Amino acid sequence: xxxxxxxxxxxxxxxxxxxxxxxxxxxxxxxxxxxxxxxxxxxxxxxxxxxxxxxxxxxxxxxxxxxxxxxxxxxxxxxxxxxxxxxxxxxxxxxxxxxxxxxxxxxxxxxxxxxxxxxxxxxxxxxxxxxxxxxxxxxxxxxxxxxxxxxxxxxxxxxxxxxxxxxxxxxxxxxxxxxxxxxxxxxxxxxxxxxxxxxxxxxxxxxxxxxxxxxxxxxxxxxxxxxxxxxxxxxxxxxxxxxxxxxxxxxxxxxxxxxxxxxxxxxxxxxxxxxxxxxxxxxxxxxxxxxxxxxxxxxxxxx
Length: 303
Ligand SMILES: Cc1cc2nc3c(=O)[nH]c(=O)nc-3n(C[C@H](O)[C@H](O)[C@H](O)COP(=O)(O)OP(=O)(O)OC[C@H]3O[C@@H](n4cnc5c(N)ncnc54)[C@H](O)[C@@H]3O)c2cc1C
Fold this sequence. Notes:
With 303 residues, the protein is α+β, with helices and mostly antiparallel strands.
């Protein structure tokens, strides 16, 4: 009799290349942390994604679509379910004048570079954000006063029944490092409207922001970007700094000495090390400043 693993292998045309069981998720996160996913599958077309949604409504196995794992902490126990990565047609980009149609799997640094070469302004800030478009939509990723949602005209999502739904900018409910897009089975792509401009000016701005980022934030060591959201009118990094927590270490996880809002995996840190350090920081900052820090990094595989 067919079990869910057999059924899953019928979704993609070349399961030997794009489907794996017992896949270490540490390979798919910027933190380099996390146990195994029961299954990992790379989906490359809308038809395959629709088949996956139908599979999901038939079999009682959790499904999590991930991007480039740059805002993700995966449990040491891994994920009892299927991790999905969008590739191929679902990562393509098309330019029509100043209107861009981009798949959720497309990497942000590539988007930023391609737009600068096309003389289109609006995503210069994204060169230093190592995520994909889907993750940037979910998180409303941003830097230097710009957010991804600012350039989005509409977002295409797939619901649990496999139907494609087009949401307007307003329906996506973008807010600071959050959106209403979590509610859907999968973010498929988006339409962006950018401003035509001069290639050299755009490229200089993009490279300047990248340089500023890599000199003020850790960029080489494994991490997941900012661990905490900035509280209204303040910066989480400043609060962590004034509490004297830079360099504080639990197990293999350490608060960056360059920027207090980054936790680094310096020496085979576990997800437990990271969560213990997060709790330590939250308690200390609360005790010394009265402010409760909320985490920005998403979690997968925790009960
Ligand atoms: C060195 C470094 C620097 C960073 N700098 C910044 C910065 O300046 N500004 C900023 O905002 N962030 C920053 N980040 C964090 C991160 O890059 C962004 O949040 C990014 O947008 C996450 O994209 P991702 O593809 O990696 O998402 P992931 O981490 O893979 O996923 C994030 C969440 O979205 C979900 N998800 C992802 N794709 C889909 C999809 N297609 N459909 C449904 N759900 C999906 C996942 O399940 C998860 O819950 C940084 C991270 C690092 C490591």
